[in-house]
Amino acid sequence: MISETFVLGGDRPLRRLGFGTAQLTGPGYWGPRGKRADALAVLRRAVERGVTLIDTADNYGPDLAEELVAEALHPYPADLVIATKGGVVRTSDSAWHIAGRPERLRAMCEASLRRLRVETIDLYQLHRLDPEVPMAEQLGALDELRQEGKIRHIGLDSVSAEQVEQALRLTGIASVQNRFNLLDRESAAVLALCEAHGLAFLPWFPLANGALTGEAAAGLDRIARQHGATRGQLALAWLLHRSPVLCPTPGTGSPAHLDENLDAAQVELSEGELKTLDALRAS
Fold first, then answer.
1. What is the rounded end-to-end Cα distance, in angstroms, of the chain?
2. Annotated catalytic, 60?
3. Whether the Cβ atoms of residue 18 and residue 204 lie closer than 8 Å to each other
4. What's the average model confidence in pLDDT over 239-248?
């Protein structure tokens, strides 16, 4: 049996299969996607289905995803963990600007607090490390916000194993959010570090961003038929089996797709099936 729960930072229990909000915004995570009422309904459905981890970011929209989370779910259930990110500024659907100056990070965090309508953000992740600013200054700014009670836990996004080790020497880290999925395991060393230190690993593109095709599809389809599951459900089930620290947050704007994703937690894979899936690679 796989563990359905993880304790973030030693004090915030959550269900490992969460919900990401990027797909509630338009192409390039820019502007709205569809009707606002539909986005609100999906968020509420996620919580009704038992999701206790919502993953968002200030630049999804920009601002829009955080606003939707608050409109749909505030006042929040006591067991709901909201993770957001800062440190990247968007000026168009294809323009991403890293902004890691301490004063900028503080302003971003305080803006997220207002949009989310909270006094403390459960998990605040640095969306990208700024190569122009020493890591100690970036994490120092977040540490100050944590000491002020505005952040409960600090996380990192898109980092190397060496950067995780450096960050751990500077301050307490509760999570890492890197790309990791059935067909992309370049962050395996980062995952091993997370396991060693009890950090949550929130894999982005957990469904391989549409890459579950080609040669990989045959292996997936064979196992999927045995479980009455879809390829996407197998990809999520594989993550849940792969490591107890992996906490996928697949996103969607469709209630039916949401239910499909969350049902992946019920797919129990055998050792033989896991070996078959482990052997898959992108074609």
1. 31
2. yes
3. no
4. 98
